[in-house]
């Protein structure tokens, strides 16, 4: 009995074994163990729509969540992508990287000496920048244009008066150009160089003068056509195709036309100094001894023919007709001749050539005098050209003897610059304002 009791198993108070079950597996087992009543309740539409949630909660108690979900916050900061970017060398600034670096960084560039471009003023900016004197000149240029229109409409029946109106139109246009040049001179873009406009906007004045010279040419052709038309109508006994008024202008009207042309020309000559720059490109030697106003060929032309037209009514009728046509032909020839000279001179400026003082003969004389210097062997290349009315450029490549140091070459460069300025720039005391920029390149190796 005792042996049986000793062989009976003894139970110890030990905890039951623990099992670790995955959350997903636990959830599946939990759903499998649910009774069919719970499944029917989950599929019931009334419970799914939440018709009576209070009774359901009361019967079931607190619902048990079979899945262990935890709320996680998602970052809203943008994700920086490294796709397409080079990582570079870790030791970029080390000695190892310097030895094996193929593409070196470019050295820092100095700031440009010339600006890329300068602002061009608008009409409102130009009007605000005008001074009181400049506005008076603008108003007078408009008055000069009105005088030209008055002479043109008042000259009906007189070919010489109509030709005189063409000259006054040219003077009025030149006065307007002078005013525009003075107003644009208030701005930096007019004189300062830039990459877009290497010589500023001063070359536009040359272009405006070229247009005025074209007006002279076409004005001369227009006067010739009118004169020939009137002359052909007097031949034969046929009727003209167009009605023309051949009645002579009254003496009072002719005197008024001549007086208006003379006064307007003198005011523009002394007040605005029109034609002063254009006259520089075509100096007439026979007019140089006359006073300042009459030495200008365009002023002389207008004043001379105004005086001739003023005395025209003093002649008899038979002589008046022929003199009227003769004066018209003379004005047309003068406009055509001056227009040709101005077109050539300003065309050379636009084409970057030189046709100034004595033209090619003056340049040849300067080059021959440079070659007479003891340090100069020969002049290999030379280029002379005029940029605008106030600036000319000369580029020289000269072969010099070996043995001259930098000081001697610098003195030679100064002698060449002063020689060109004095010979071609009219020197000091003459009144010329043409500035020469001379660039000299010396080649000592060619002197061996």
TrEMBL record:
InterPro entries cross-referenced by the UniProt entry: Cation_efflux_TM (IPR058533), Cation_efflux_TMD_sf (IPR027469), Msc2-like (IPR045316)
Query: Keywords for this entry?
Result: Endoplasmic reticulum, Ion transport, Membrane, Transmembrane, Transmembrane helix, Transport
Q: How does it sit in the membrane?
A: Multi-pass membrane protein
Tell me one Pfam family matched here: Cation_efflux
Q: Where is this region: Disordered?
A: 1-88
Q: Where in the cell is it found?
A: Endoplasmic reticulum membrane; Membrane
The biased composition feature labelled Polar residues covers: 68-84
Q: Which residues form the Cation efflux protein transmembrane domain?
A: 147-350
Q: Name one GO molecular function term.
A: zinc ion transmembrane transporter activity
Gene Ontology CC terms, in alphabetical order: cytoplasmic vesicle; endoplasmic reticulum membrane; Golgi apparatus
TM ranges are: 138-155, 161-185, 206-224, 300-323, 329-351
Lineage summary: Eukaryota, Fungi, Dikarya, Ascomycota, Pezizomycotina
Please cite one Gene Ontology biological process associated with this protein. intracellular zinc ion homeostasis
Please give the family membership noted in the entry.
Belongs to the cation diffusion facilitator (CDF) transporter (TC 2.A.4) family. SLC30A subfamily.
The name this protein carries in UniProt is Zinc transporter
User: Which Gene3D superfamilies does the entry link to?
Assistant: Cation efflux protein transmembrane domain
Q: Which organism is it from?
A: Moelleriella libera RCEF 2490
What is the recorded function of this protein according to its Swiss-Prot or TrEMBL entry?
A: Functions as a zinc transporter.
